[in-house]
Write a structure and sequence with these properties.
Elements lengths: L7 H13 L9 H8 L3 H7 L3 H22 L3 H13 L2 H8 L7 H20 L12 H22 L5 H12 L3 H7 L1
Helix pairs in contact: 1-2, 4-5, 4-7, 5-9, 7-8
């Protein structure tokens, strides 16, 4: 009976994820990752440039890939739910990932990738009714929704709440679909 092996990039990613649960990201070395994965150091560099590249790969593979497919199929609400579902499935790790700050910080990775994804979605049909309002260029609107979504994810992760991904996606959709004025009238 042959044992099925985990792909090397996934093995490396899982090693970083395990290490981050007990060691601050800044203190994790490539040697620690390769020792945890039981691979040689050069093998790491066959897949990733550094640990920041690895962190970005984890974000892309685990939480952004499915959402991108759903956005491409014209299913933005399902894409948001997929984001929350993926993050909820490994909330302890993603709390630690949000603690990675700076130029290559996790939050920045999410903002950059999601904004590009939303620009792509908005760019297809343009923004109806936004003619003459340059501030409502797809890049700016995408950034608005991206910052709200990433902020919501981060607030939820650190709040200690255990809301379901369905409830989180519904709450985001509710807020994203209303103006500040309509919300203040209902409070």
């Amino acid at each position: 009976m042959s044992e099925r092996r985990e792909p090397t990039n996934r093995l490396i990613a899982n090693s970083l994820k395990r290490l981050m649960l007990k060691t601050p990201f800044e203190k994790i070395s490539i040697k620690m990752i390769t020792d945890e994965a039981k691979i040689r150091r050069p093998t790491f560099y066959n897949y990733f440039q550094d640990k920041y590249d690895l962190l970005e790969w984890i974000a892309a593979e685990e939480i952004l890939q499915k959402s991108e497919l759903l956005i491409n199929e014209g299913m933005p609400d399902e894409a948001v739910k997929a984001l929350f579902t993926s993050i909820a499935s490994d909330a302890a790790f993603y709390r630690k990932a949000f603690e990675v700050t700076g130029q290559n910080g996790f939050e920045g990775i999410l903002v950059d990738r999601l904004q590009k994804l939303f620009v792509k979605a908005f760019g297809r049909g343009g923004l109806a009714g936004a003619e003459g309002l340059d501030i409502l260029a797809p890049e700016n609107v995408a950034l608005y929704y991206t910052l709200a979504l990433v902020g919501s994810i981060k607030a939820w992760l650190f709040s200690g709440r255990r809301d379901s991904p369905d409830a989180l996606a519904a709450a985001y959709g509710f807020l994203a679909g209303r103006s500040l004025r309509s919300l203040s009238r209902s409070m």
